[in-house]
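Batch job 17 of 40 flagged for manual review because the log was empty.
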Amino acid sequence: MAAPDLQNPPNGTAVLSVSGHHDHESHDFQLPDSGGWITFPFIAGALTGLTLAAGGWGANLIVYLIEEFNVKRIDAAQISNVVSGSSSLFPIVGAIAADCFFGSFPVIALSSCVSLLGVVLLALTTLDFLRPEECGLASTLCKNPSKLQFSVLYSGIALAVIGQGGTRFTLATMGADQFHKPSHQAVFLNWYFFSFYVSAVISNTVFVYVEDNVSWKLGFAMTIAFNLIGLVIFLLGSRFYRHVKPQGSPFVDLARVFVAALRKRKVLISLDNEDYYCNHQHQGPVKTVTATAPTKSFRFLNRAALKTEGDTRFDGSIAKPWRLCTVEQVEDFKTLLRIFPLWSSSIFLGTPIGIQISLTVLQALIMDRHLGPHFKIPASSFLVISFISTAIAIPLIDRILFPSWKKLTRHSPTPIQRIGIGHILNALSMAVSAMVESRRRRVAHTRHLPAGSVTPMLGLWLFPQLVLAGVGEAFHFPGQVSLYYQEFPTSLRSTSTAMISLLIAIAFYLSTALIDLIRRTTTWLPEDLNDGRVDNVYWLMTGIGLINFFGFLVCAKMYNYKNANEGSLNNGSDE
């Protein structure tokens, strides 16, 4: 996914842009209070080390399971999808733990230790007694791993995923907390995401190449080393960090609205605005309120802000927080309900991508991956093409396509339009995947290849589908970030990125369930893909993508932006 620059305009709405400039204001280069740019090398170093470590074991997981643990190909893809989903889900848990209970520093430090323990266990699985006997690709008599071997493997994966989850979002949040000025926070985020994606590309190429062509032991040893380096660099900067106390999670307020409305379900709704609680007080000072009366939509929820006897104290503060909420909290909850259909449509945008990622690796394993007589592209490294395509497409879209769009239409494309283009390109990518696989299967059948044999067809044929998927992501991912930052309530803006991560997690879990359903009801996905119909799977994903696109159009047509001017968010294109 592309590296966004979140710029904060005066109204506090975060806007997505790929451009950034370094605002050389000396204020944030301070040492006395701690924080500032002096902390950047430590956070960037920790991020680089931990990202390299995460990619070192995760990027080549499918191949490791197949070649070293004799896991069947589709099962390996399923495990990889579950791991990918969990890798997107646990960062939400880590972010909530940091925001609500412990603060960023303890969560990052502990998570780094947990991930280190996880990759150490994974490295141990390269030892002969902790993995099954070797099994050739064409062999049908492969020995299954023992319970002990599986236990060590899955324990290592689980700990590595949990540890990764505690650092992915939390490092970005902690880094932004080191700066007072929004311009400095924007520059930090640019460099943060740049470091993240450069590290991801390195781990998907260099680490994967070492594991495939040198040894798995060396590859996992490098993973341990970089995890340890990242942890040490992070701890070395502890005396310079600014530590922000936990502020509580907005999810609690959302839960309170639902519970309060449910508890007052028998109370009659009042038409008098004075009967609703508008003060926004917590344990700190009174906050500014933007809503003074509840709207008529989702009227059931208005009961949560309806004052009844015993709900408030003599000073006007809330006495029963799980029975009375503010009007603003109620309206925030309604905003999430309004945007939910658009958000949910992106689940089926991500599900085909999850399936494509897994199946592409399996296809690459049985295709000719040579570039010249001596170099062979690792199967897992094919996915880097999608990363590179996204990285190239974003600045081209931002600096060429969108300005041209505005000249022709006199309007900048809205985030919803950007997401819609991503839907179309994603469906097109699935159709191209189906055509390429159909040709690969035809070549294999023409040659009457034995089970597990490599098809004499260049793996470079997989590039077009990955390029389309990458360009599609350059449209829909920044579009979603822009939409949620723009439309989410002010109190929930920091939650919007977590919603995207949750979406990705659900999409990967759903792709796992969908592949399992296809295996149970069809013969499209056997162990030997030459005997299967992977092209039919891709055509099914194309159909699902098109149906989902039309559903998205309906939701987009019915959706009204909170602010008409915000609907023309330019994503950095307008000057």
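Reviewer: the log was empty due to a logging misconfiguration, but the result itself is present. The CA atoms of residues 7 and 15 lie 5 Å apart. Unflagging and moving on to job 18.
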